[in-house]
Amino acid sequence: MINMKKIMMVVTMLYMCIAADARIPDFPDYIDDQGLLYKEFRDDRTNEDIPGHQGEVQLWGFEDRDDKVVEKFEKLKVLRVPAVVKARRIDGQETETLRVTAIDGHAFRGMPNLEEIFLPEGITYINPFALGDIPAKIIHIPASMKKLYMSSFKSYNSKWEKVLIAKNHPTHCDVNGVVYTKDKKTLCVCPKQHREKVIIPATVREIADEAFEEAANIKTIILPNGVVKVGKSAFYDSNIESITLPATLKEMGKNSLNCCKQLKTIRCKAATPPAVAEDHLWGLQLDTLTVYIPKGSTELYRQADWWKNIKNYVEE
Prior knowledge:
The chain is mainly beta.
């Protein structure tokens, strides 16, 4: 019998290979006096200009064929991306004045000592891949960059400690480098390598999905009264040792506390166990984990999904 599923898979893979071969090579178009390279906004399959981006370019990286330029950027600690640049075409001597409005996916590669990045007002997009596997710890986000990819600050081999948002940003803000919605009702993301104590504002009502996922240096979390929801994987695989859940908490997403190998104490102030979107508990050290709950609520916790798997309860 012909396996149609396998045939379709082979056809799809062949199509992807042919499409990949048909792509236009990714080359920059301009270079400035610093050695920074820029690319026009073009469709990467047809090589045609993208309408609406006349006079705009993306930061592409730096000229790595020039030893002096390479040495300069290898030593660089702070990068201030220009908002406007005078650059000449790589294929000629013509100089143009251009607005830098985006960051390409490998813009920060080859900068092993980079610690801080300033993005200027006017930047509207940064390729999420540009923020992974680089050494920078602090990034400044302008108000013009309205779309934020929160997962970028916890991406592969991420060193991000603080995401600093412009005061006039329309939708988000930060508190000491931790990102919140503008109204501070949702904690969106704590950078993976954040090192300072996190004090969550009393205005917060929700901890977003994956907000503290893989947080390496946060040991204690106290969710303020008023928080009603903890998103899925919110603290997954983090190094927290203690967490306090408020009496107002109603809902916890899947994997919200799972795989926290260092977790020793949960202090849940809710008399009724918060609903957890799964019925299994894994990746925790159950023999050394103690859960403190309100007096008279042990039976409710021992019957509730997820909570019933915990061994050690103490009423207080």
